[in-house]
Amino acid sequence: MTHALKIDFVSDVSCPWCAVGLASLQTALDRVGPAVTATIAFQPFELNPQMVPEGEDTTEHLARKYGSTPEQAAAIRETIRARGADLGFTFNLDKRSRIYNTFDAHRLLHWAHLEGCQLPLKKALLKAYFTDGEDPSNHTVLLRLATEVGLNAGRAKDILAGDTYAAKVREQEQFYQQQGIHSVPAVIINDRHLISGGQPPEVFEQALKQLARAG
Fold first, then answer.
1. Which residues fall within 8 angstroms of residue 20, CB to CB, at 6 or more apart?
2. Distance separating alpha carbons of residues 5 and 208, to the nearest angstrom
3. Which residues pair with 56 in a beta bridge?
4. Closest by Cα among 123, 95, 149, 101 to 21
5. What is the dihedral of CA 95, 134, 18, 23, to 10 degrees?
């Protein structure tokens, strides 16, 4: 018997632990096999909603926001790199020299969900930023990624040129904040069960199996 699960993955494309969490979740889903099917919806969360258009130097930003020393930041980067490598995701964090605003990326992701193409776009955005060091606020980059995953280029260009889906994205952001989500990734299964942080696959696998057994 196959058990269908609804998963809301609250995250930001500028969050490295969100890339780790997604890779872990997908690994867990592969492990549980046909016993569990899941529909994943990516919900918006901005780590830096007030980020200036030109972005900010990563080292300076982390030092200001978290009080991290360069040595602490380097140790965290290595931890993230190793976790990603174990899961088949390549972090080239030396290329991530700046942190950018991600609101337009979330608008495109909302549209991609309506088009049934959200997961490919999410993965493309994470790769573009963390592996290739590209700017996820740059409309040229966003348009290219949208078309590469099969979305309509003309529609994507129109969305980016205006404020389409802006109100909906803000509404969703506020909803999850009001539900107590203040850090990401936050993985919510069947609207009831929360798994926080970039957990290893074993944590997700155990949760998926327990929920499947519970029916």
1. 80, 83, 84, 87, 89, 198
2. 8
3. 99
4. 123
5. -90
Here the tokens at position 201 are 């696959």
Residues 201, 24: Cα–Cα separation, whole Å: 4
Neighbours of 78 (CB within 10 A): 12
Distance (Å, rounded) from C-alpha 12 to C-alpha 47?
Answer: 7
Kindly report, residue by residue over 8-36, the tens digit of the pLDDT. 999 999 999 999 999 999 999 999 988 88
For 163, other C-beta atoms within 10 Å of its C-beta total 12
Residue 172 CA to its chain's centroid (Å) = 15
Distance (Å, whole) CA 25 – CA 23: 5
Give the number of other CB atoms < 10 A from CB of residue 115: 15
- Summarised one tens digit per residue, pLDDT across range 115-133 is 999 999 999 999 999 999 9
Q: In this structure, are residues 171 and 112 in contact, taking their beta carbons and an 8 Å threshold?
A: no
CA distance 121 to 148: 9
